Amino acid sequence: MKLSLGCIADDYTGASDLANTLTRQGLRTVQTIGVPSDDLALPEVDAVVVSLKSRSIEAEVAVDRSRAAEKWLRGRGAGHVLFKICSTFDSTDAGNIGPVMDALRTDSGDAIVLVTPAFPETGRTVYQGNLFVGSVPLNESPLKDHPLNPMHDSNLVRVLARQSRTKVGLADLATLSRGAEAVRGRLADLSGKGIGAAIIDAVFDRDLETIGAVALDHRLSVGASGIGLGLARALVASGKVKAAAAGAVSDAPVGGPAACLAGSCSQATLAQIANAEKVMPVLHLDPEQIIAGPAEARRALAWASDRITDGPILIASSSTPDQVSALQSRHGRDAAGHAIEQAMADIAEGLVRSGVRRLVVAGGETSGAVVDRLRLPGFLVGEEIAAGVPVLRSVGSDKGEMLLALKSGNFGGPEFFSDALKLMR
Length: 425
Ligand SMILES: Nc1ncnc2c1ncn2[C@@H]1O[C@H](COP(=O)(O)OP(=O)(O)OP(=O)(O)O)[C@@H](O)[C@H]1O
Ligand SMILES: O=C(O)[C@@H](O)C(=O)CO
Hints:
Blueprint: E1 5-9, H1 12-24, E2 29-33, E3 47-51, H2 59-75, E4 81-84, H3 97-108, E5 113-116, E6 124-127, E7 130-133, E8 136-137, H4 156-163, E9 167-171, H5 173-177, H6 180-192, E10 195-200, H7 205-215, E11 220-223, H8 225-237, E12 258-262, H9 267-276, E13 282-284, H10 287-292, H11 295-305, E14 313-316, H12 321-331, H13 333-353, E15 358-362, H14 364-374, E16 378-386, E17 389-395, E18 403-407, H15 416-423
Parallel strand pairs: 1-3, 1-4, 2-3, 4-11, 5-10, 5-11, 9-10, 12-14, 12-15, 13-14, 15-18
Antiparallel strand pairs: 2-16, 6-7, 7-8, 16-17, 17-18
Helix pairs in contact: 1-8, 2-3, 6-7, 7-8, 11-13, 12-13, 13-14
Bound molecules: adenosine-5'-triphosphate and the ligand O=C(O)[C@@H](O)C(=O)CO.
The ligand O=C(O)[C@@H](O)C(=O)CO binds at residues 11, 13-14, 17, 86-88, 119, 224-225, 364, 388, 408.
C-alpha cells in the first residue's frame, strides 16, 4: 500500500470528521485507532487517518505519539502528512498544537507550514488570522466555556505563537484571492524572515482548494477538515489519486440493541439531548456520584438493561457551563474530566457485553475513552449523518462488526441522536 495522504488526528471524533471529508472527496480512507499494529489487515486505501487522543495530554507525550504516527505514515509512502486539529483550535498556551507542529516540521524538513482550522461547511472561517465560529469570533463563541480548553483569544497568529518555538506569520485572504502563486510568494517572504508557520485565511471552499494545491508543495500541513478537503481535491485534480465511487463501504445491517452516550457539554450537545428526551429514554448521570465511585456506572447499566430491548436509550453526563465549573472547582478540571470519561467507558463496555453493537458517542475525549476501552482498531467510513459525522463500521474488531458514530461536541443538527440511529441499522 502506498499512501497519497497520511493524517494524524489529535482526537477520535476529529479523525472521523476528517475521514468523512476525505471519503466524500473520493479518497479511499481508513481511520485507525492509534498507530496500527503490523497484523491489522487494512484494505487498499489512498489515505489513512491515525486517531490519537493527544489534544489535552502533556505536550511531550503528544509529540512522541504524533511522531510515531508520522513515522508509520511516511513508512507507507505518505509524501504529505496533515496534522488534524480541531476547527475551533482547541488547545492551551502549553500546547498541544504548537509543540506537535514544531516537532513534525523538524522531521519533515519544511521551512514553513500552512496552518488553518477553517471548515466553512460547519461555520468555521478565518479572516485576518481571526477564527470565527458562525458569526462570532472564537472568544465570544461557546468555546469560551469549554471544560478542558476554554478559548479566550480569536487571533490565531497570537494563539499559535504562544505555543510554538517558531515565529508565526499570516497569509491573508487578499493574497489568497490572487491565487496559488501569490500564496507561494507570501510563504517565501515569510520563511525568508525566519517565520516557520503561517496561519492562512479561508472563508469559502474555493480558498481551501488554493490552499490544498499550495500545501501539496510541502510535506506537512496543520488544520481541520477544511484543509483536508483542499488537499483531497488537489490530489484528485493533479491526477495523483483517482476518485473512488461513493458507497464503496458495505451497508449490511448489523442490528441488535442501540445506545447513545453523551459526555460533551457543548451547547449543541445539550440541545440534542433535550430533543432526544422526546423520543427515547434518557438517563442523566450524577457527576458527583461518578467521582465518588463505580456505583453510578452500575446504576446506569441496570437502568439500561431494563429498557434496551425496547429501543435505543441515551445516557448523558453533560451539564451546563455553570454546573461544569462548580464541579471542576470542587475536584479539579482534569480529575473530574478523567473520572467521567472512565465512567462512560465502563458503561460502554457493559452495554457491549450485553449485546449492543450500535453506539453513538458525543464528545471527542468521551469517544476516545469509549473506543479505547472497546479496543476497536479501526473504521471504514459509511454514510454521512451530519457535516463532519459519518457512520463508522469497525474493522479488525474481536467483537464482530459494530457501527459507531463519534460526534464532535459542536457538530450535528438538533435531532442528531435520532438522525444517527436512522442510518445505523
Ligand atoms: N457534568 C460534567 N462536568 C464536568 N465535566 C464533564 C461533565 N460531563 C462531561 N465532562 C467532561 O468534559 C469533557 C468533554 O470533552 P469531550 O471532548 O468529550 O466533549 P467536547 O469537548 O464537547 O467535544 P469535542 O472535543 O469533540 O469538541 C470530558 O473530559 C468529559 O469527561
Ligand atoms: O474539527 C472539528 O471541529 C472536529 O473534527 C473536532 O476535532 C472537534 O473535536
